[in-house]
């Protein structure tokens, strides 16, 4: 491999609280770098994990869950989200698919702050449909 073909990029994991962003980051890195709990709003600041392989180095940024419920997200938490989004080359919204199968009415509510944040976005996005292990009919 030539030095020119080695790639480096920043990826921001973002999305509603409890979607599994921190779990995904730990899984991608193969080690625990960020806290995972069943409680929403666990991630409170910007957490970064670096994945290195022969082809690329990827800096993954975990962010606090974006919630529509005002007051639940402190200024510092919101700032951590914007800081990560500003730095990102690629944005990965993470969604708890099992939640929306059980509660389709929650989808619009949860997506509103995410859609608002990404409304005029032109960078590449990878939407992660998470927690598919929780139902049989994929
Ligand atoms: N079954 C299942 N559970 C998952 C999966 N990913 C995450 N979880 C569970 O979902 C809960 C929330 O996971 P977190 O990774 O803390 O979620 P988060 O999006 O970082 O949450 P905040 O930081 O609070 O916004 C935990 O109980 C995880 O174990 C998955 O793919 N499948
Ligand atoms: Mg988290």
Number of strands: 5
The H/E string reads EHEEHEHHE
Strand content: 15-25%
**What is the total number of structural domains?**
1
The neighbouring-strand order within the major sheet is: 2-3-1-4-5
> What is the rounded distance between the termini?
38 Å
Helix-strand makeup class: alpha/beta
The coarse overall form would be globular
Q: List segments where confidence is low: pLDDT < 50 over at least 5 consecutive residues.
A: none
Radius of gyration, rounded? 15 Å
Separate helix tally:
4
Which fold does the CATH topology refer to? Rossmann fold
Helix percentage range:
25-40%
CATH superfamily: P-loop containing nucleotide triphosphate hydrolases
Give the bound compounds: guanosine-5'-triphosphate, magnesium ion
How many strands, which pairing sense, and closed or not: the largest β-sheet? 5 strands, mixed
Give the overall pLDDT as a whole number.
91
At CATH's second level, what is the architecture? 3-Layer(aba) Sandwich
What is the subunit arrangement here?
A: single chain
Given this structure, which CATH class is correct? Alpha Beta
